[in-house]
């Protein structure tokens, strides 16, 4: 019996010693975190980054901007003059009103002579009496004038009408993150950027996660698809290329949050509160509300990184978190509460000591 009491006393003494050691450790390092740096270490003086305590006096540079208003203007499609290129198919109507017997083509009264020709890889077409003129780079009206010029002297009164019926020069290529990529014709009329994307089935992701690149051959423009929906639409030039790609709109959530990992920003102008909500919020029972940090790389070669800190125990911090903007590549880090770390440390120690106690009693 005396041996049992001695072992029990020794066990409790060791347990108390471990607890005091852990309390001392927490006092030295601030709040312990098992998923990253200690809260105290982040808050200590350093030359690597700027630590900003978010409050009413410091929040202004980190607030999200106001939502941009929707534009009332619309893109008005105006048919541009398409420049022909190899692969285009032309339908050519030639009428010849010369006296009967001297006409090379059918007269207008009978519907004229209808011809169809494709521009070959050398940029030429082939027509009877006209030969093989080079037409690549010309407009339809220029081809009409060329045919009339080539037939001059062969007949007295010829008229032509040229129509593009199979086009590469007038089409638009849509590729990338759309449901049905492909080349879309402008024969039915000019296409706006929204027209082209809609004909390709629309983007496969949320609008704010899609960047749009428009190439025209001598100019490159980039947009966020959400901005296009807000009214920043445009008429596409023939033979343009439209490429939709995933925008780099991601952040990292670490520490005591519900769903840590690499996440998509839930909106284009995401607040810290929205971002925390999208990862399940602070983990109940293990998070330290006083240790909510946002790590942000500096902008520019000389700019130092910034670490923002919020004390979520302050009721006003909820409003601050609603106003602070989260940028792509930010890292949100929530430290663990000290008691959670103590439990992780004490549990295996207690289990080991309990095993030793049982062995000692036996």
Automatic annotation (TrEMBL):
<feature type="domain" description="SLBB">
    <location>
        <begin position="249"/>
        <end position="334"/>
    </location>
</feature>
<dbReference type="GO" id="GO:0015159">
    <property type="term" value="F:polysaccharide transmembrane transporter activity"/>
</dbReference>
<dbReference type="InterPro" id="IPR003715">
    <property type="entry name" value="Poly_export_N"/>
</dbReference>
<keyword id="KW-0626">Porin</keyword>
<protein>
    <submittedName>
        <fullName>Polysaccharide export outer membrane protein</fullName>
    </submittedName>
</protein>
<dbReference type="InterPro" id="IPR049712">
    <property type="entry name" value="Poly_export"/>
</dbReference>
<dbReference type="InterPro" id="IPR054765">
    <property type="entry name" value="SLBB_dom"/>
</dbReference>
<keyword id="KW-0812">Transmembrane</keyword>
<keyword id="KW-0998">Cell outer membrane</keyword>
<keyword id="KW-0449">Lipoprotein</keyword>
<keyword id="KW-0625">Polysaccharide transport</keyword>
<dbReference type="GO" id="GO:0015288">
    <property type="term" value="F:porin activity"/>
</dbReference>
<feature type="domain" description="SLBB">
    <location>
        <begin position="172"/>
        <end position="231"/>
    </location>
</feature>
<feature type="domain" description="Polysaccharide export protein N-terminal">
    <location>
        <begin position="77"/>
        <end position="164"/>
    </location>
</feature>
<comment type="similarity">
    <text>Belongs to the BexD/CtrA/VexA family.</text>
</comment>
<dbReference type="GO" id="GO:0006811">
    <property type="term" value="P:monoatomic ion transport"/>
</dbReference>
<keyword id="KW-0564">Palmitate</keyword>
<dbReference type="Pfam" id="PF22461">
    <property type="entry name" value="SLBB_2"/>
</dbReference>
<keyword id="KW-0762">Sugar transport</keyword>
<dbReference type="GO" id="GO:0046930">
    <property type="term" value="C:pore complex"/>
</dbReference>
<dbReference type="GO" id="GO:0009279">
    <property type="term" value="C:cell outer membrane"/>
</dbReference>
<keyword id="KW-0732">Signal</keyword>
<keyword id="KW-1134">Transmembrane beta strand</keyword>
<keyword id="KW-0406">Ion transport</keyword>
<keyword id="KW-0472">Membrane</keyword>
<keyword id="KW-0813">Transport</keyword>
<dbReference type="Pfam" id="PF02563">
    <property type="entry name" value="Poly_export"/>
</dbReference>
